[in-house]
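Z., the sequence and structure:
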Amino acid sequence: MKKFIEAHPDLWQFILFNVLSNISTITRFVLTWVGTAVFVSAMQMTSPFRFLIFDYTSEGSHGLGGFLTFLIAEVMAQVVNFFVQKKWVFKSNADFSKAAPKYAVLAVVIVVVNLILPGYVTNFCIGTLHLNAGLAATVASVVNTLLAVVVSFPLLKFWIMK
């Protein structure tokens, strides 16, 4: 394994990035499930919600509760991901005061996209694919995760944590 890592350090870093990104992915999924249980099931915060570009008005999007669930899950996943990537993947000694604001920009872009996307993905899953609301929310989380990986790895490697 050591020979492979030495021969292919960039590939190893990408593998490590994806494996350790699962820590933030797990954070995202757990908080999505907890948020759905709290905001949607327990508190019944299911009133249709639309604000600027955010559309949580369809039946399966869970309205305001769905929006709050995805907001909290995404923000916390990004916080966890920053520290995991900085410390374990890129082993970066980048100055926190310089890396954190750059990461915040990346995280805001990811969070905004990930707040916009679930409403549309959920609508598509329920309306077109005829999935139930719980499975549709999980599919929306998977789509968000894949998009975050494709965008964030090169930005982290070459801009934020170089």
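The first strand starts at residue 49 and ends at 51. The first helix runs from residue 2 to 7.

Let me know what you think.
H.
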